[in-house]
Amino acid sequence: MKQEQKLEVLRHSAAHLLAHAVTELFQNTQLTIGPATKTGFFYDFLPERNFKDEDLPIIEQRMHEIAQQKLPLTHEQVSKEYARELYKDNPFKLELIDQIPGDTVGIARQGSFYDLCRGGHVESTHDIQHFKLLSISGAYWRADREKQALQRISGTAFLTAKELRMYETRIEEAIKYDHRRLGRELDLFSFQEEGVGFPFFHPRGKRILNTLTSFLRAKLDKANYQEIATPAMLSAELWKQSGHYAHYKDNMYFCEIEKQEYAIKPMNCPGAMLVFKQRPHSYRELPLRLAEFGLVHRYELSGALHGLFRVRAFTQDDAHIFCSKQQLEEEILSNITMTYDVLKKFSFSTIIVYLSTRPKTALGNDELWEHATQALKNSLEKSNTPYTVLEGEGAFYGPKIEFHIEDSMGRTWQCGTIQVDFFQPENFDLHFITSQGIKDRPVMVHRVILGSFERFLGILLEHYKGKLPFWIAPLQVKVLTITEQQTEYAKTILDTLTNWGIHAELDVSGDPISGQIKRAQLQQIPWMIVLGNKEVEHNTITLRYLNGKQEFGLTLEQLKDKIAAEL
């Protein structure tokens, strides 16, 4: 933790260094805010003219020059009157000054540069050596699209040169294996101007999503889940009742139907509650596990959109479990087990778990929050799952467990969550009949494992660097012939593979075998079946893997065994 705190202080100081350099190079730029983040830092500016990508190396060079001046970083508390005079021409800083409690505010200084700040810096600009500016993007003041549009410059900083070099290597790999590039090359999905932020899935991309869905459905069937489907658009009154309208309306899409306001669902949970409420329930039915592969829509700022990682429409592998208080820990435990079981299927060996607690704006009383949080803690401890507490990071209706996966490039991604909710069952007046014949409130558990199918597909493409494993690859086998004389035999092999449920195609290009192999490799097809006269004569096949390894003289029965092992 001490190392993490040092890194946060360094990155906070690097944000000040960035602002210092920008104000020297672009003197009429207005400063807003610039915090450290988990991966680096950013600063939001209102420039006189928009920054361009070619400005980044110039700004970064000026940052290095200022760093070499070894300017001391100091911090002092000044009166608000003095601070207002400093920032009389900056409405953003004046707004912040007015909202800071007390009669004084903090000012950080380095040379001639100063900034409104709570403190926490390195001793000198010379301590900020290992940093890199990464991107320019759009932002809004206070993340409110109704307010002033700004430009955000993002960067990262590390304590050592080695850590920065490792980061730069990861960045180079991330660019090389960017899922957006792979999506185009492998013909999986696209984005169109007619639907900004809404992905279009091509046949092979949709096939991957179908495989993911089938895989999860099999898990859910074994665990006694029942699948439902709820409408994409529901009355705004429902979202007011659930609390989403008050807490989430800026990220929702609305329309009017017959003079009534409707909203496209950003979440699946209210629909599941209406299904539960449709008829009376006995304690014998609990836990009732309702699963839904629900398409949701959320408004995201255009500057925040990023391939499949941040879209405006996505499908969640949602589940809502209604249980008694006595069943709660057992349900959480079973979902922890299922989450690990699913994620490890994709070769994510490092899974980091967090427990997010009550946020500042939350529904319900302290007692219910404590009960819900304790149930999550007990389940994590019973399952021997190490975890870190994230104070105040829970949903507005309940605490949650978060599962973060580490990919092959050392990056972490949040996917699964398990959230306990005592409040929505009360909002919707849900109940069941106990063994004593009286009404009682169920507890609701919200659960996703992959989270967003779209985002998870993007993660998979970069994790495997486009080389998806056999079981999930959209095209698993390509059948290749050395000459046209093997075509009829090849068709027989193709029919056999199709009957086995394998996604296979026959290369009918007529190209030399070397060209067929190269094309299959570019398409990242896991297996190639190569057929010549020898294979036809002995009723065998040659199996060539994507990495170039080959196995000769395999019978169809041997091939079937290998496929079964892969699946």
Q: What can you see in these coordinates?
A:
The chain has 567 residues and is an alpha+beta fold. It folds into 4 domains: 2-160, Threonyl-trna Synthetase, Chain A, domain 2 (Threonyl-tRNA Synthetase, Chain A, domain 2, 2-Layer Sandwich); 180-230 and 269-463, 2-Layer Sandwich (BirA Bifunctional Protein, domain 2); 233-267, no CATH class; 477-566, Anticodon-binding domain (Rossmann fold), CATH 3.40.50.800. The longest helix has 24 residues, at 2-25. The protein is globular and about 90 Å long.
What's the CATH superfamily of the largest domain, by name?
Answer: Bira Bifunctional Protein, Domain 2
| Category by helix and strand content | alpha+beta
Quick check: average pLDDT? Answer: 93
Shape category? globular
Assign the CATH class of the largest domain.
Answer: Alpha Beta
